[in-house]
Each structure stands twice: as structure tokens, then as C-alpha cells.
Amino acid sequence: MPQQPPMRSRLKLILLTGLVCLLPSARLDAQQEQGKQRASLEIQKDANRIIDKNRVLDSFYSRLYQLTQRSSQYGMNPSVVSIMHIGDSHVQAGFLTVKIMNKLQEQFGSAGRGLIFPFKLARTNEPFDYDILSESKWDKTLIIQRLPKLPLGLGGLSIKTNDESFSFEIRSSTREKIDHSFNKITIFHHEKAPELYVADPAIKSTNKKSVYPFASIIQLNNRVNSLVLSTGPQVLKADSAIYYGFSLENGKSGILYHAVGINGAQFRHYGSVHNFAQQISILSPELFIFSLGTNEAFRGKINEKSFFNEIDAIIEPIRQANPKALVLITTPPDCLAGRAESTKENNPNIAIVRNVLIRYAEAKGCAYWDLYSVLGGNNSAYKLYEAGYLSKDGVHFTVEGYNMLGNLFSDVLIRNYTEYVQSRLR
Predict the structure, then answer these.
(1) Sheet arrangement for strand 80-87
(2) Measuring CA to CA, how many Å separate 52 from each of 100, 212, 328, 371?
(3) What is the pLDDT of residue 12?
(4) Which DSSP helix (H) or strand (E) runs through 89?
(5) What is the pLDDT of residue 70?
(6) Would you tell me how many other CB atoms lie within 10 Å of the CB of residue 415?
(7) Helix (H) or strand (E) holding 261
(8) pLDDT tens digits, residue range 70-115?
(9) What is the DSSP letter of 107?
């Protein structure tokens, strides 16, 4: 799948839920076209389940249950369950993952917004529920670039400035149902990057050292929804002002739902990031969700053995670096071979990608969610388009489509959790 250029007026995104979907504009193709008669879409409800033959997710459900017990007991230290969702532009866009995050945090509590990345400063699309602003000029590197100019961090991107002093303004949304005010910021950066400080002297804060050379921590006395971080009185070292992202927490018990996604990304791209698994370890994820594969389906003929190895090249190091973490793989939905105006034919490689992902999950003892089957399987892409969920390019979803996918996934995860609790309490 060709890489999409940065978009402002038409917000398009490539999601790797095995989906390479792009977000079709503010109203996303205006529900495909204003006045167009919508077709109905029959979701395969029997297929909407997480396959977990070895019950590997039981320990995750147990941790969620502990959250619900802690929320009813005052005076206890906060408990956090951290989830890491890794994908492509569908994840970068945020519409899918913010929907999932909000539903899980409504159910189990919010420990904060989690990971955020300076996509706008890297001149690409950024999720709608936060802003990272700066007046400085920033160079960028993304994992999809063949020859990265800069070292890459856990978000699959990095930004660099040559300014002697600079600042970041961070804003979390106040429009969502979930309060994402924060009192702790973890900054991910080059190990020699200048230290950042809270610019407003009225906001009491403490800079803390991390055991990791690529991360710094700022603790606030009170929660805020916006904050300016600036360089202090220091000499800028050459080529060191490189930053990867931030994580926002609130000090409460609940879910931290981190999402890492880059337009056009594939499994092999994440596997190429030096110390990717080790950097993610600082967030202590208990569940990794991998939603990749659609971009691989546009590479041409698929070598199934090579693709299997590409999956393993990123998942296995993550499991070694996070031995207690669990893995859930999602398969990509069907997509068209071209634009909807010119073809109704699907991309036949999607079925191959889906089969390899399932074979990998079963061979490695991972749980999986077969979204391909949930949405109707082979030749379901044009039906998604007619129903207003898929954009005209035949691959990317509309906002309504992303909301549907987010609801499907969060609903089945919560349903499985409920079944686990019911069996536990018998």
C-alpha cells in the first residue's frame, strides 16, 4: 500500500488492525456521499469472539477484576493495568483506539491518557484528543523510512531541533467523557537530550531521574489539562535535542491504554527499531495488542514463511523483555484492490495475511480476534463501503467505521471479562 502524504484538510489515516485504513476527511466522505442510500451490514455476531484456547488472557481479566475491587476501597495505593496497542495509521489516527480506551476506562477507571506523540510537529496526522505544540522547527524520522536520519524511539518516530532553546505545549482534551488531566509526565528522548522543566512557576513540580537513559519524569503537585515544558539554562549538545513522545498519568487506579501507530507501518518496521521492546518495558504493559497486516497485503506476492518470521521478529523480543505480558493479535478486515469507483474486487492477499496471523497466534500460544471473519470475510469490503463504513479508496474506514470497530473490540473484551468473573464467582 503506498504511503499516504500528510493531510490537513482531508484527514486520512492508515490503520493496522491488519487494516491499512485511512480516515476519509472531516466527515469522512460525507457518509460516502450525501443522500446516498445506505446498505445494511450484517455483522457475524457468532464470529465476534476472542479465540484463546490456552486461556492466556485469564490473568489479564484477573487484573481487571482487581481494579474493580480497588475502586470500591478507599485509602489503597493506586493500581494500574497497562495495555499497549501497536499498529499502523488506523492506530495513529486515534479514532479506533480512543473509542476502545474510553469504553475500557469507563468500565475500569482511568489512570491517564497514556502515550502521546508529536505527530503534528513531524508533519503528519495526530489523534484528535490531545495537542503537542511548539514554535521551533523540527526535523523528523519515521520507521517507514528506508534510511532513518535520526535514532527512533518507542513510538516509531523522532523529532529533532537545532534551536538553542525550545518548548512543548501539551494539551489533553476536555471534550471527552473521560477526564484526562494529568500530574505525571514521562518524557521519552535521546539519552543526551536537554532536560525539560515546567515553564509556569505557579505550577509546583519535581523533576525525577529515571533508571532508563531514554526517559525523564516530571511530577506535579496538582493535576492539569495543559502544560508548557521548556529547556532550562543549559548548553545544547550537538544533535542531541531528539524527542520521541510523552506519557500522561493521573496517579489514580485504572486503565492506561497506550497506542503506537505509524501510517504505512508493517511488522518488519517495528522490528527494525533499536531497543523497541526495551523502551516499551518502562510502561509495564500487561497486554500487547497487535493490529498490523494490511500494508503487507499490498506488497505483492506474500512469502508466508517470511511473513511469519517478520511477525516473530517483533513479538518475540517484546515477550522476552516483558515476560509477564500477554499477546492478542487482530486480523485485518477485507479491503478492495482499488478505489470503490473502479472496482468491487477485494485484495486477495488479505486472506493470506489473515491465515498467517492466525497460524502464528496458534503456534505461539497467543490469543487472537478474527476481525476479518467478524465483518463477513472474503468479498465483504464492498459491503462495508455500501454501508458507509469504508471510504472510497476501498481500504480506509470512515469515522463511523472506526467507531464500529472500536465498539466491536471493546464489547467482546468486556464480555469475555464478564464471563471470566462469572466463572470465578461460581
Answers:
(1) 50-51, 367-369, 326-330, 287-291, 80-87, 254-261
(2) 20, 34, 9, 15
(3) 34
(4) helix 89-93
(5) 67
(6) 13
(7) strand 254-261
(8) 655 555 678 999 999 999 988 999 999 999 999 999 999 999 999 9
(9) H
Dist. CA 257–CA 97, nearest whole Å: 8
* CA separation for the pair 253, 330 (Å, rounded): 27
C-alpha cell at 168: 512543548
Q: From CA 355, how far away is CA 361, in angstroms rounded?
A: 10
Q: pTM for the complete prediction?
A: 0.89
pLDDT, tens only, 257-305: 999 999 999 999 998 888 899 889 999 999 999 999 999 999 999 999 9
How many CB atoms within 10 Å of residue 244?
A: 25
CA distance linking residue 361 with residue 369, whole number of Å:
10
Nearest to 63 by CA among 379, 367, 299, 417: 417
Q: What's the distance, Cα to Cα, between the start and end of the chain in Å?
A: 49
pLDDT for 293 equals: 96
At residue 175, the pLDDT reads 72
Q: Which residues contact 8 (CB under 8 A, 6 or more apart)?
A: none
- Long-range interactions of 42-46: CB distance < 8 A, separation 24+: 42/376, 43/374, 43/375, 43/376, 43/408, 44/373, 44/374, 44/375, 44/376, 44/377
C-alpha 377: how far from chain center? 24
> What is the spatial distance between Cα 143 and Cα 137, in angstroms, rounded to a whole number?
20
